[in-house]
Amino acid sequence: MRNKLHVFIKQFGLPRIIIVSFLLSLCVLAIIYNLSIAGLLSDTLVRTGMHGVLVLAMVPGILCGIGLNFGLPLGILCGLIGGLISIELDLVGFTALFTAILVSIPIAVVVGWGYGILLNKVKGSEMMVATYAGFSAVSLMSIGWMILPFKSDEIAWIIGGGLRTTITLTERYDKILNNFAAINIGNLTIPTGLLLFLITMNFIVWIILRSKAGIAMKAVGDNPRFATASGLNVNKYRIFGAILSTVLGAIGIIVYSQSFGFIQLYQAPMFMGFSAVAAILIGGATVKKASISHVFIGTFLFQGLLVVALPVANKMLTEGSLAEITRIIVSNGIILYALTQVGGGE
Amino acid sequence: MAELIEVNKKDSVLDKIKKFALNNMVTIMFVIICYIGFYFSNLTFAFFINDLITRIARNSFLVLALIIPVLAGMGLNFAIVLGAMAGQVAIIMVTHWGIVGWQGFFLCVLISAPLAIIFGYLTGKLLNKTKGQEMITSLILGFFANGLYQLVFLIMVGSVIPMHNETLLLSSGVGLRVSIDLTGGLKYAIDDLLRWTFPKTLMMLGSASILIGGFNIYKYIKGVPNYLKGKIKLRMIGYVLAGISLVIYSIIITNSNSLLNNIKVPIITMVIIGLLCLFNIFISKAKIGQDFRTVGQDRHVATVSGIKSDKVRVTAIVISTLLAAWGQLFFLQNLGTLSTYGSHEQVGMFAIAALLIGGASVTKANIGHALLGTVLFHTLFIVSPIAGKNLFGDAQLGEYFRAFVAYGVIGLSLGMHAWKKQLQSRRRLS
């Protein structure tokens, strides 16, 4: 029995056990403090759908061998451009949402292709280079947001140059997926459209991973030497993975924005990659292994933790930002844990 | 390999220049950017020099703290953030106790040391578990530690840790204020001990340089056998000449009504930075420095030759973290305001960007790189907002450009390094 427990702890990972038990104790506290469980659950569902696609973007990156894709901001920036263009074209509703996605995909493909080439040149240090590629792209685009010639009043400052820091989507596609066929059961609201979209995206990725290219990509990520020996072009499939990840990042931020109700420009995308990385790691992925189920489990757990922590922390302490601090510690802690598992040492 | 050596022999002057330019591309590019920025900012030279001296005194220490882990092959230590935190903990304690001036500063040095050593030890242990991914680990570790730091100072101080201080705590009695003013306390604790005017500093520097050069040349002329070798002899003559010109220049400034006369240089801080440089040279020549380099070049060779490489790596990080803690003390006593939750956040990034701009890489860094990089990076800091405002009518643009440059330089340099490594290993295979 003890042996089994030991094996279980080793497989599941100590940090995950800590996180899950932390979440459970938070839930118990929530019940004690008489918080609305249904409300918390629907918040968690919304936030799972909101972050889900961004987390999904990690899967192709991990599988094709470039590791945790800290360069997610690159994809996010592409998505933001798409979102802005659809507003500039004065579109509303689902047309606007899908135009944003359709416009951002080709941009993301080009960016992802370049990104893939970059990562092929820096094998072994992908994560570090990707982090800084993301950071510098965000700062470069901050300059870009100030000088890009968007005209719409909703996007640009009326006086002075540059785009607004946050752009309200109320009259465009605010929560359009969330509200699509939403089901209300008492206090519990299920954002059907949002979850359906997430499931569809996951399904598409699942199919891609089972296609010929997907299997080849997994082989390349699993064992590059073996893949080369069996005649696969390693670099090509790594680029494929990078493109897929970037495109998913672009779609992810559009879904995120519609659920959030705002498009955030400038420095906002800087650290979004880290949350996504943390979420998939909490779901059970490692630097080398990830699956669709990890996306669901990880996003649900991570966002659930954040959703429950906020009101509970506010009940316990009226001041301070305990929930934010929890997020920082949990997300970076799990990334550190994953890095120690890469098989350091010799 | 044989081919390569032969090609090297035939290098013409032009090739040499080309090679120099290629190896120092980042630095050269920066000199150009800084010059353009300076030109468009329309700053007066005196104002610029004043700002630059302040910033050199403020930041060099932190940049110098990065050198030793690079020698030990651990790359750029983003975890100096932890050192900075140790420094800030000490400052918060000393400010709370109300000890001011250099005594307070000295107490900070004493308190931060054990903290920094503990943090450094833990960092080193962690980095030993993630060999090959040290930099990303130290980066994330910085973020993680920041979370713990906030937990302690935002939530626990006043609630779990008893502390009563109206000026430091938020009005609710729990958590520290976002910014703590050090004026009248630790501000300028070291800087104000001794300040010389700019020309006086130049004159002293020039005199010292003449003395060193002159002494060595005198000894040579007196006929101490084999005292100076050709190259060093030239260098000594150079010292004397540079010293003379500095002295002349300082006399010219003193006798003009240039604004440069109003600049006050914090001498003690500068001397301490100089001593740290000497310490770095000393340590890299000592036995432990050899160990660092052996471990840095090849861990297996080091292990075979009886060096405990894990222990050496931990030592390197401990020294770096300790220096970073003290560096943060110097930084904050000059700045005069402790931004409780922000001062340490960007320390790692800015120091690393500065070091890389000076021409260092992931595997190679020395004092020259650190000092040159500090000068160049902070020149950019001074000029870019003003140049951005003058060119585009918006200072924010300059700020973004600066951030882009800092991130871009780090990314580029990491990328170049990884690419070179990949090319090398491919060459070895074929």
Automatic annotation (TrEMBL), chain A:
Record keywords: Cell membrane, Membrane, Transmembrane, Transmembrane helix
Protein name: ABC transporter permease
Species classification: Bacteria, Bacillati, Bacillota, Clostridia, Peptostreptococcales
One GO CC annotation: plasma membrane
Location of this chain's protein in the cell: Cell membrane
The keyword Ribosomal protein belongs to this UniProt entry's keyword annotation: no
Membrane topology label: Multi-pass membrane protein
Keyword Phosphoprotein: no
Transmembrane portions of the chain: 17-41, 53-85, 91-117, 129-148, 188-209, 239-257, 263-283, 295-313
Molecular function as annotated in GO: transmembrane transporter activity
